[in-house]
Amino acid sequence: WRATVTRLKHAEGVEEILVQRSLPFPSVREGLIFGTALFCGICAGCLNSIVLNVLAVAMIIWSIQLLRSVKEESLLLCTDLGIQLPRRSFLGSAQSVFVEHHKVEDVILNEG
User: Fold this and answer.
1) Hey, which of 50, 82, 88, 106 would disulfide with 100, CB 3.0 to 4.6 Å?
2) 3-state secondary structure of 37
3) How would you write 49-75 as a 3-class SS string?
């Protein structure tokens, strides 16, 4: 996985740290082509239909897990309001959590 970290200052007291990840392949299409080619190559050497079914299910589960993984997440620090933690997957689903400032004791960022 490749990740890009960007630090943005939107206004006084508002700062965002954005982490963007890319798939291990240059595009989803190339990843699916690679997976299909790998699957067909494995299947060509197999004669047992049970093995083929298990491999097909494993490939489908792997593809779904890959596409459901986190593509982008950020930490938006608003001094007077709180912290927002948005997250987006490769399939486009988004989630966001907001923590009000009076519930936050301290913020520690491990950049190592």
Assistant:
1) 82
2) helix
3) HHHHHHHHHHHHHHHHHHHHCEEEEEE
> Which tokens belong to 75?
């930490």
- Which amino acid appears at position 19 of this protein? V
Tokens of 85: 């933690």
CB atoms within 10 A of CB 71: 19
Q: Distance of alpha carbon 107 from its chain centroid, rounded? A: 23
Give the Cα separation of 40 and 25 in Å (integer).
Answer: 19
Model pTM score: 0.57
Question: Hey, CA dihedral for 32, 37, 42, 46, is it positive or negative?
Answer: positive
Each of the 112 residues of the chain gets a pLDDT tens digit; together they read 567 888 888 888 888 888 887 766 556 666 676 677 666 666 655 555 666 667 777 777 777 777 777 788 888 888 888 889 898 887 778 889 999 988 888 777 676 5
How far apart (Å, rounded) are the C-alpha atoms in residues 38 and 52? 13
